[in-house]
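Researcher: Here's a chain I'd like modeled. Treat it as a single chain, no partners, no ligands.
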Amino acid sequence: MLAYTYLAPGTFGLTEKPRPRLQHPRDAIVRVTLSSICTSDLHIKHGAVPRAVPGITLGHEMVGVVQETGSQVTNLSPGDRVAVNVETFCGQCFFCRRGFVNNCTDPNGGWALGCRIDGGQAEYVRVPYADQGLSKIPDSVSDRQALFVGDLLSTGLWAADLSQAGPEDTVLLLGAGPTGVCTLACLLLRAPKGVIVCEPDPQRRAFVQAHFPQVRTTTPDQALSLAAAVSGHGGADVVIEAAGGENTFDLAWQCARPNAVVVLVAMYDKPQVLPLPDMYGKNLTFKTGGVDACRCGELLSLIQAGRLDTTPLITHTFPLSRIQEAYDLFEQRQDGVIKVAIEPV
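Model: Modeled as a single isolated chain. Structure tokens:
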């Protein structure tokens, strides 16, 4: 089968690989029907994910159809349409029982697909702990509607919940890329008093304005003054940093009012400095980490009910045979690209 492969640091390529086989009774084999490219894939390319293993098939955003299940898989059958979770988790360890599935203690726990084991930018993928990592897609939900459930939308829901934003809060969201938009969609379910989206790219600001007209948009140079003016408390009640840019960490805490919550969901390429003397007295609460992506069923129900729709994020579609073109487009942010869908056929 065709598989897009991490060959060496800085080098990806489309290769021929054998179809995956069951390796454990809790495995499932999934025929991929649609996948996508994530910024995290680019982090692998540029060396920011040292645990990534050369030789693995890339890709952790995908949907497909179950082809085969191990003997201990009880809630799935061949033919089921499924959304694939970005994280592998056993469901039984200390962390899994508490919902902290990103910290699953299994050797393949956490982000494994497309990082430490073969992922889904291919025709088939093996999914460990399939009962945990696969969610059935309702018949009324399309592959394109479900594509981001296992990663981007899970991240958005997790970030919105970490924020604990409520009806009295003004929220500043940094970044209107794919993660930012999915976070915005989930944040609006909490009905905060006001939301400001900060994004330097005018095309992405226009996207937010077109699809979320109830939201204000601004640029980084105006974010601090606008957050202070709108909130009335000297800054935003909640700041969510979903950009991961050169100065966005500093902007996040600077735009927060005293005693605010700052949620960091961005994945940074290098360490960030916590300037404690400068922020002394602001009494900020920082929340950060990797997504606990264990609520895919809830997200699929919200999509089915018409309360979430991320299909506008898919701006381009390529066949797997042209995935290198798709990567180049995505990495260079050309032609107004936001997300790319990859069809294996």
